[in-house]
Amino acid sequence: MKTTVGYYDFVKAFKDYDREAHFPTGLSALWDYLEEMEEDTGEELELDVIGLCCDYTEYADLAEFQAEHNAEDYPDIESIQNVTTVIMIDEAFIIQAF
Hints:
Largest sheet: 3 strands, antiparallel
Helix content: 40-55%
Distance between the termini: 32 Å
Number of helices: 5
Radius of gyration: 14 Å
Structural class: alpha+beta
Order of helices and strands: HHHEHHEE
Shape: globular
Number of strands: 3
Number of domains: 1
Oligomer: single chain
Strand order of the largest sheet: 1-3-2
């Protein structure tokens, strides 16, 4: 049995789990990415808020990312895109765990 989740249900689920702060500016970008992934693959995804918080991380900018990763290995966004999915949100971005 499945329930179709719309954008507002998606946001509410993050609020219900007290996880909306995990994606302070990128929750709608993550939604768009996941919707596009469903369309591209033809497979429905299950909403797993905790799983998404484990699989994706939002960074305010490149400097914040570099503070957690070796800046020499990742001098720019393109170098990050070479190893994982990057969802851009102006200066901020979301990466898939790698």
